[in-house]
Amino acid sequence: MTWRFLATLDRETLLVVTAAVTLLTSVLLATFSRVVPGEVRGLRYWVASFAIYGLATAFRIPGEPGSGTGTFLASGFEITANTLLFIGVCRFFHQVTPTRALAPFVALQSVWLAYATFVVASVRSAGLALAVGQAAIPIAIGVVAWRSRSRERLLSGCLLGAIAAWSQAAVVIAHTVAMLAPLPALAARGLPEKLFLAAEMLLALTGAVAMVQVINERTRGELEFMASHDYLTGALTRRAFFAQLERELARAGRSGLWPALCLIDVDHFKDLNDRHGHLAGDRVLKSLVTVANDCLRTTDTFARYGGEEFLALLPETTLEEARAIAERLRAAIEAANFGTPDAPIQATVSVGIARCTADGRSLDEADRALYAAKEEGRNKTAVFGG
Predict the structure, then answer these.
(1) N or C end: fewer C-beta atoms under 10 angstroms in the chain?
(2) Same domain assignment for residues 97 and 214
(3) Distance CA 178, CA 43 (A)
């Protein structure tokens, strides 16, 4: 049925549809970039790639397969489109583009294509030169997507890798059939080329869906991060912290190993702002989070409570252990320079510590301990009831 359907289609129709699909995909991706927050790395390369590929397909419409300058230009555009697509994928997954390997590969492919077209006038050699890139670039895209899968935690990485593998297989099979033409009857009706063009059209549609999906998933992840992390400092938000606290209390209720809670306040922060300016105060808060993350354990949770106050949740930690951790944090902040070597800025913190229990009074108890630490002269740690 597929062969009969392809036999009824003419080459020009398939090329027109493919060109229209790829150009519309380029427009779709360009429009999509306006409705997602922030910049999507690599998206501009994808937009350019699909637009150039649509132009390459349009160049093939007037001529016969593999003939003349028009086909050479179309092939050159396809090489450019494939290269831009690969660069876009590398940028999207925050991987370095292997320029030292990519540039010689593209140059060699272009020289091979020009030699086959204008020197020896070999349609088969020119087609093979183009097919090498059409096969190799999708394989490379699949490798990049697959390697990024676990780090990015995007199911779309697997999908993108699969799409790249399918496109590579389709191109190689179609090109092999077209070059070797093992079935003269099919070749006479142009079925190998029609199969190739139909595969290109299908992959253009599938590629558009895949790209929209990866952008959606990346955007959703960024929105979730923005909702759970403080914009200025990058620490968890108050809401995200208490959600984590509820989970930790539920686990502690089963194990009997209760966490400790630290309430941390920057001493004389208003005076620091008045003396050094609000931008310097912001730098202190951001740097303080970095210092805290270095001092705390990987299992601990650190969040901005509000203003210059922060919270630290220490799972399965006794009050004695919590005080030692809080002392380490306090000393590290006291020793840090939050300014520059020429204009140092010092800051200290007071820390209140309490045991977390199911009665929900831990935050109030930590606040009382913090008040006691300030009463002792600030730059102190205090344990509730201790």
Answers:
(1) N
(2) yes
(3) 33
